[in-house]
Fold this sequence. Notes:
By secondary structure, the chain is α+β, with helices and mostly antiparallel strands. About 30% of the residues lie in helices and about 25% in strands. The strands form 6 sheets. A 4-stranded mixed sheet has the order 21-22-1-23. Strands 2-14-16-15 form a 4-stranded mixed sheet, covered by helices on one side. The protein has a 4-stranded mixed sheet with strand order 4-5-3-13, covered by helices on one side. The termini are close together. The mean pLDDT is about 95. Bound molecules: uridine-diphosphate-N-acetylglucosamine and phosphoenolpyruvate.
Amino acid sequence: MDSIVIAGGRPLRGRLKICGAKNASLAVLCATFLCKNEVVLENIPNISDVRFMLGIIKSLGASAGWDGPDTLRVTPPEQVNDEAPYQLVKKLRASNLLLGPLLARFSEAEVALPGGCNIGIRPMDLHFKGLSGLGAELSLEHGCIRGNAPGRLRGARVYLDFPSVGATENIMMAACLAEGQTLIENAAKEPEIVDLANFLNTMGAKVRGAGTDVIKIDGVPFLEGGARYSVIPDRIEAGTFMVAAAATGGDVVLENLIPIHLQPLTAKLREARVEVYEEEDTIRVCANQPLRSIDIKTMPYPGFPTDLQSQLMAMLSTVPGTSVVVENIFENRFMVADELKRMGARIKVEGRMAVIEGVPSLQGAQVKATDLRAGAALIVAGLMANGETEIGNAGYIDRGYYDLEKKLTSLGATIWRK
Length: 418
Ligand SMILES: CC(=O)N[C@H]1[C@@H](OP(=O)(O)OP(=O)(O)OC[C@H]2O[C@@H](n3ccc(=O)[nH]c3=O)[C@H](O)[C@@H]2O)O[C@H](CO)[C@@H](O)[C@@H]1O
Ligand SMILES: C=C(OP(=O)(O)O)C(=O)O
């Protein structure tokens, strides 16, 4: 994998356009399998996760291609060719989102157990519980999830023990073509869930309540497709730049985002004495006074997102005083702490809690990304640090950030790829 090198110590300044959301794009790409006709998707980021997902859906028989820098045309297959290939599936977790659509549309599915970042055990019991509740028979054979749904799936009442994003998405997609009504209780409420529901409804589904605890889906025989849909902006990309601007004492305006989606981060940055100004679809982040230590706990939306926890940890590493971070979603999301320590940070990890004692500054060092957001956190740390930081395993970062070096260069950073 490549490395990214940063000569740190410069505040970020300028304006930047945020891309479409990775997690919304991946779910919507899977949902195209529920449609009969071509679908045009706009605001799709050309990141490696999306390219892998395109590879997977093409291997299953879809035809798909770029029709502009962020527009994709996808024609779903009339029948599926094969099982989703392990070589591609292992590279991204979201490949598990094909299960629901394949079962609903083709009554059978074979998907290799997904890979993705090593941020926790990431079981799929809630996906299985929900899809079995709709009548699917699922088994795990030789690292492959096999499912079939003799006849049509049947609507059911599904209670999720935890509001899992992926399980909510899989069940919601499957339920669109099930006979009768499905209720998903204790559903995830992330903006990407609402976006997926909006996509499904645009294509002809009947989904209500997305964004609340209970999602109600009335099954229809098929989704027509044949429409255009633009996915929401990436709140995690936006949040990463917000943190980078704050951490470098910068002043950055981010465009093409939905400020309310960033509320949990905005509130925390303000608590840390960062100025954040929201307008209709822009946010300005301005840090021109010493920051104050804060505590954060990751939670399902609208709580603080786990996908921004590592980046904030990097920022807090030079904030005077003690900050405490509690990670409630993924048990392995503190691996970045060891890398930050190589740069001079003082972080003590105990189970799900990290205690950060602010140091006066970070020093550039050779570090490596252990997952996508750990990589993003090391980018933030590299921008803050004195001297040069070389971040190995940059491929993880490419999973979720389009044109990162170019975007940061436009904000005044010195950054290049090796
Ligand atoms: C592609 C995508 O959209 N990825 C996002 C999605 O991941 P993902 O959909 O995998 O995350 P989930 O919300 O499912 O996982 C949250 C928690 O639920 C647990 N769990 C999940 C499913 C299950 O069947 N059983 C179970 O116990 C997981 O181990 C984890 O502890 O939501 C996460 C939480 O916001 C984000 O960090 C990821 O970026
Ligand atoms: C954990 C993430 O993604 P995935 O669920 O695809 O691994 C992420 O985007 O930070």
